[in-house]
Specification:
Blueprint lengths: L1 E8 L6 H15 L2 E8 L4 H13 L3 E6 L5 H9 L6 E4 L11 H10 L4 E8 L4 H17 L12 E4 H8 L8 H8 L3 E7 L12 H15 L2 H29 L8 H33 L7 E5 L5
Parallel strand pairs: 1-2, 1-4, 2-3, 5-7
Antiparallel strand pairs: 3-8, 4-6, 5-6
Helix pairs in contact: 5-8, 7-8, 9-10
Length: about 300
């Protein structure tokens, strides 16, 4: 059984070598047959230079250099095109992924006949900002992607080959792995793990990148934001109708109607703000449809160093 590791690399010159060594150590101890696909998603040529060194050092490494930064999710899509394994493992390039837990994940996958196993980090070394981002991501997945409460997603996961083959069918330029997995299968499990310390550097995710990831998660696999906007619009219309009815009744009864400038302006701002939000949601969907119709690629490969024949 061949196991394919797919690792997006972003400014990871100081860490990716350690990650590869960790994988090789786990493979040797457990007698796994492995291949490693390293995808350079950073603009710096030095990162691919490091991947080239690793490719020359190991026979089972495929190194892919993307022409520009397209994001972690798109880099994974590029890596998936080169897999040959029966099982696929996705992990980070920063050394925080405990790849030595792979035997536990494979055991759970086989024992419970699962399709995907995610690592559930019960102890992390992420910043408060990243933990907040993870909590928001989890809320978004439960609200819009119908993720069950007993499933936790993460960047370290193991899947059967057919799951990744289904993910590869997604051709639009905004892939979101967790959403694509959740819409493909419900046989998902978790293994509780402790996250390793970061070896060097800092997270490549800032607020704008996390926001873009959340938007992709919502718009890639769900139309619920549009439905919720419609429901909120009907609620505002109902409130407006009741308010109008009350005013008409008061007028017919000869009661005075107080004219409140402040309340009027507040109502206009509230409703106007809501309308702009709804238009923004619709515009996001329409914009992504337009970009997809323009045949915007998920990624462009500048160079590929194939693994050596065995």
């Amino acid at each position: 059984m061949l196991i394919s590791f797919v690792i997006p690399c972003y400014h990871s010159t100081d860490t990716v070598g350690y990650v590869v060594e960790s994988i090789e150590k786990v493979a040797k101890v457990n007698n796994y047959d492995t291949e490693i696909i390293l995808v350079n998603d950073g603009p710096k040529a030095a990162t691919f230079g490091k991947l080239r060194e690793l490719h020359d050092l190991y026979d089972n490494i495929t190194a892919v250099d993307l022409s520009k930064n397209r994001g972690q999710q798109n880099a994974l899509m590029a890596g998936f095109q080169h897999i040959e394994g029966d099982l696929v493992v996705v992990c980070d390039d920063d050394g925080q992924t405990p790849v030595d837990a792979l035997p536990q994940m494979i055991e759970l996958l086989e024992k419970d006949d699962l399709d995907v196993v995610f690592a559930h980090y019960v102890a992390t070394h992420n910043s408060l900002f990243r933990r907040f981002g993870s909590a928001m991501n989890n809320f978004m997945q439960k609200t819009f992607l119908e993720k069950s409460d007993d499933v936790t997603t993460s960047a370290f996961w193991l899947a059967k080959r057919f799951i990744v083959e289904e993910i590869k069918r997604y051709r639009n330029p905004y892939p979101y792995m967790s959403g694509l997995i959740l819409r493909t299968t419900s046989r998902i499990g978790n293994v509780e793990l402790a996250q390793n310390d970061r070896i060097a550097g800092s997270s490549g995710y800032n607020f704008s990148k996390l926001l873009g990831l959340w938007i992709s998660g919502v718009t890639t696999c769900s139309a619920k934001p549009l439905r919720y906007s419609s429901m909120a619009g009907m609620l505002f219309a109902f409130i407006g109708f009741i308010t109008m009815l009350v005013l008409v009744i008061r007028k017919l009864m000869g009661l005075d109607i107080d004219v409140g400038w402040t309340s009027l302006i507040a109502s206009i701002l509230l409703v106007g703000g809501f309308i702009l939000i709804v238009l923004g949601v619709i515009g996001e969907y329409v914009g992504r449809i337009y970009i997809s119709l323009n045949s915007t690629p998920q990624y462009v490969e500048r160079e590929v160093l194939q693994k050596k024949a065995r």
